[in-house]
Amino acid sequence: MDRRKAVAMLNKYVTTPHIITHSYAVENVMRALARKLEPDSEDLWGMAGLLHDLDNDLVDWQTDMSLHGPKAIEVLKEEGFGNEAMYSAICAHNPANGSKIESIMDRALYAADPITGFIRAITLVYPDQKIKSVKVKSIIKRMKDTRFAAGANRQAMKSINHLGIEFSEFAELSLNAMVEIANEIGL
Protein backbone atom coordinates (compact mmCIF):
# COMPACT_ATOMS: atom_id res chain seq x y z
CA MET A 1 0.00 0.00 0.00
CA ASP A 2 1.25 3.42 -0.92
CA ARG A 3 1.29 5.66 2.15
CA ARG A 4 1.73 8.78 -0.01
CA LYS A 5 -1.56 8.00 -1.75
CA ALA A 6 -3.23 7.37 1.61
CA VAL A 7 -2.00 10.72 2.98
CA ALA A 8 -3.18 12.45 -0.22
CA MET A 9 -6.63 10.91 0.22
CA LEU A 10 -6.73 11.91 3.87
CA ASN A 11 -5.94 15.51 2.93
CA LYS A 12 -8.41 15.45 0.03
CA TYR A 13 -11.41 14.21 2.01
CA VAL A 14 -10.74 15.36 5.58
CA THR A 15 -10.52 19.06 6.30
CA THR A 16 -11.01 19.03 10.07
CA PRO A 17 -7.51 19.57 11.56
CA HIS A 18 -8.01 17.54 14.75
CA ILE A 19 -9.32 14.59 12.73
CA ILE A 20 -6.19 14.69 10.58
CA THR A 21 -3.89 14.63 13.61
CA HIS A 22 -6.09 11.97 15.23
CA SER A 23 -5.72 9.88 12.07
CA TYR A 24 -1.93 10.08 12.23
CA ALA A 25 -2.02 9.08 15.90
CA VAL A 26 -4.26 6.08 15.21
CA GLU A 27 -2.01 5.09 12.31
CA ASN A 28 1.06 5.00 14.54
CA VAL A 29 -0.70 3.08 17.32
CA MET A 30 -1.94 0.57 14.74
CA ARG A 31 1.59 0.17 13.36
CA ALA A 32 2.87 -0.51 16.89
CA LEU A 33 0.10 -3.05 17.48
CA ALA A 34 0.85 -4.74 14.16
CA ARG A 35 4.54 -5.05 15.07
CA LYS A 36 3.43 -6.89 18.21
CA LEU A 37 0.58 -9.00 16.79
CA GLU A 38 1.04 -9.37 13.01
CA PRO A 39 4.45 -7.99 11.98
CA ASP A 40 3.95 -8.72 8.29
CA SER A 41 0.84 -6.50 8.26
CA GLU A 42 2.26 -3.24 9.59
CA ASP A 43 1.55 -1.20 6.46
CA LEU A 44 -1.99 -2.54 6.11
CA TRP A 45 -2.79 -1.88 9.75
CA GLY A 46 -1.23 1.57 9.55
CA MET A 47 -3.27 2.51 6.49
CA ALA A 48 -6.46 1.30 8.17
CA GLY A 49 -5.67 3.55 11.13
CA LEU A 50 -4.79 6.50 8.91
CA LEU A 51 -7.98 6.24 6.87
CA HIS A 52 -10.51 5.03 9.45
CA ASP A 53 -12.21 8.45 9.67
CA LEU A 54 -11.93 9.27 5.95
CA ASP A 55 -15.67 9.99 5.85
CA ASN A 56 -15.60 12.45 8.76
CA ASP A 57 -16.42 15.49 6.59
CA LEU A 58 -18.47 13.62 3.99
CA VAL A 59 -21.47 12.56 6.05
CA ASP A 60 -23.30 13.84 9.09
CA TRP A 61 -22.48 10.76 11.11
CA GLN A 62 -23.04 12.59 14.39
CA THR A 63 -26.74 12.50 13.46
CA ASP A 64 -26.69 9.01 11.95
CA MET A 65 -23.77 6.92 13.19
CA SER A 66 -24.71 4.09 10.83
CA LEU A 67 -23.12 6.12 8.00
CA HIS A 68 -19.68 6.26 9.61
CA GLY A 69 -17.47 3.58 8.09
CA PRO A 70 -19.54 2.49 5.09
CA LYS A 71 -19.08 5.88 3.43
CA ALA A 72 -15.31 5.67 3.97
CA ILE A 73 -15.31 2.25 2.31
CA GLU A 74 -17.27 3.64 -0.62
CA VAL A 75 -14.64 6.36 -1.10
CA LEU A 76 -11.75 3.91 -0.74
CA LYS A 77 -13.25 1.63 -3.37
CA GLU A 78 -13.78 4.59 -5.73
CA GLU A 79 -10.12 5.51 -5.20
CA GLY A 80 -9.02 1.91 -5.76
CA PHE A 81 -7.34 1.73 -2.37
CA GLY A 82 -7.35 -0.94 0.30
CA ASN A 83 -8.62 -4.46 0.62
CA GLU A 84 -11.37 -6.37 2.40
CA ALA A 85 -9.38 -6.69 5.64
CA MET A 86 -8.93 -2.91 5.76
CA TYR A 87 -12.57 -2.30 4.92
CA SER A 88 -13.67 -4.67 7.66
CA ALA A 89 -11.52 -2.96 10.30
CA ILE A 90 -12.69 0.52 9.27
CA CYS A 91 -16.33 -0.52 9.51
CA ALA A 92 -15.83 -2.52 12.71
CA HIS A 93 -14.33 0.44 14.59
CA ASN A 94 -17.91 1.81 14.65
CA PRO A 95 -20.33 -0.94 15.73
CA ALA A 96 -23.23 1.53 15.25
CA ASN A 97 -23.10 0.78 11.53
CA GLY A 98 -23.98 -2.85 12.17
CA SER A 99 -20.48 -4.22 11.62
CA LYS A 100 -19.06 -6.87 13.89
CA ILE A 101 -15.53 -7.17 15.21
CA GLU A 102 -14.21 -10.35 13.67
CA SER A 103 -10.47 -10.11 13.03
CA ILE A 104 -7.44 -9.18 15.08
CA MET A 105 -7.09 -5.99 13.04
CA ASP A 106 -10.77 -5.14 13.63
CA ARG A 107 -10.24 -5.44 17.40
CA ALA A 108 -7.00 -3.46 17.30
CA LEU A 109 -8.58 -0.52 15.46
CA TYR A 110 -11.63 -0.60 17.72
CA ALA A 111 -9.32 -0.15 20.74
CA ALA A 112 -6.76 2.17 19.10
CA ASP A 113 -9.28 4.76 17.94
CA PRO A 114 -10.46 5.97 21.36
CA ILE A 115 -7.16 5.64 23.21
CA THR A 116 -5.49 8.26 21.03
CA GLY A 117 -8.13 10.85 21.91
CA PHE A 118 -7.97 9.82 25.55
CA ILE A 119 -4.20 10.27 25.67
CA ARG A 120 -4.57 13.61 23.89
CA ALA A 121 -7.07 14.77 26.55
CA ILE A 122 -4.65 13.75 29.30
CA THR A 123 -1.81 15.61 27.57
CA LEU A 124 -3.84 18.80 27.42
CA VAL A 125 -4.38 18.88 31.20
CA TYR A 126 -0.63 18.71 31.86
CA PRO A 127 0.91 22.13 32.56
CA ASP A 128 3.26 21.95 29.55
CA GLN A 129 0.69 20.16 27.33
CA LYS A 130 3.48 17.95 25.96
CA ILE A 131 2.86 14.26 25.40
CA LYS A 132 6.41 13.44 26.51
CA SER A 133 5.35 14.48 30.03
CA VAL A 134 2.48 11.98 30.20
CA LYS A 135 3.06 8.85 32.25
CA VAL A 136 1.39 5.47 31.78
CA LYS A 137 0.21 5.58 35.41
CA SER A 138 -1.70 8.78 34.56
CA ILE A 139 -3.52 7.00 31.73
CA ILE A 140 -4.45 4.13 34.02
CA LYS A 141 -5.58 6.52 36.78
CA ARG A 142 -7.71 8.58 34.36
CA MET A 143 -9.40 5.42 33.07
CA LYS A 144 -10.91 4.98 36.52
CA ASP A 145 -12.23 8.57 36.61
CA THR A 146 -15.28 8.27 34.38
CA ARG A 147 -15.91 12.02 34.62
CA PHE A 148 -12.62 12.68 32.81
CA ALA A 149 -13.08 12.53 29.03
CA ALA A 150 -16.51 11.08 29.68
CA GLY A 151 -17.12 10.51 25.96
CA ALA A 152 -14.09 8.24 25.58
CA ASN A 153 -15.16 4.66 24.95
CA ARG A 154 -13.43 2.93 27.84
CA GLN A 155 -15.03 -0.39 26.93
CA ALA A 156 -13.42 -0.22 23.47
CA MET A 157 -10.02 0.62 24.93
CA LYS A 158 -10.21 -2.20 27.47
CA SER A 159 -11.29 -4.63 24.75
CA ILE A 160 -7.61 -4.90 23.83
CA ASN A 161 -7.58 -7.65 26.49
CA HIS A 162 -9.31 -9.88 23.91
CA LEU A 163 -6.00 -9.84 22.01
CA GLY A 164 -4.00 -10.94 25.05
CA ILE A 165 -2.70 -7.46 25.80
CA GLU A 166 -3.20 -6.00 29.28
CA PHE A 167 -4.52 -2.46 29.34
CA SER A 168 -1.38 -1.12 31.02
CA GLU A 169 0.76 -2.56 28.21
CA PHE A 170 -1.62 -1.10 25.62
CA ALA A 171 -1.47 2.30 27.31
CA GLU A 172 2.33 2.23 27.21
CA LEU A 173 2.45 1.05 23.59
CA SER A 174 -0.04 3.74 22.53
CA LEU A 175 1.68 6.50 24.46
CA ASN A 176 5.08 5.58 22.99
CA ALA A 177 3.62 5.45 19.48
CA MET A 178 2.17 8.93 19.90
CA VAL A 179 5.38 10.32 21.45
CA GLU A 180 7.23 9.15 18.31
CA ILE A 181 5.15 11.55 16.20
CA ALA A 182 4.54 14.29 18.79
CA ASN A 183 5.38 17.13 16.40
CA GLU A 184 3.19 15.71 13.65
CA ILE A 185 0.19 15.49 15.98
CA GLY A 186 0.81 18.82 17.68
CA LEU A 187 1.63 17.46 21.13
TrEMBL record:
GO molecular function: transferase activity
Record flagged with keyword Transferase: yes
Gene3D superfamilies: Hypothetical protein af1432 (1.10.3210.10)
InterPro entries, sorted: HD/PDEase_dom, HD_domain, HDIG_dom
A Pfam short name: HD
Location of the HD/PDEase domain: 15-127
Descriptive protein name: Putative nucleotidyltransferase with HDIG domain
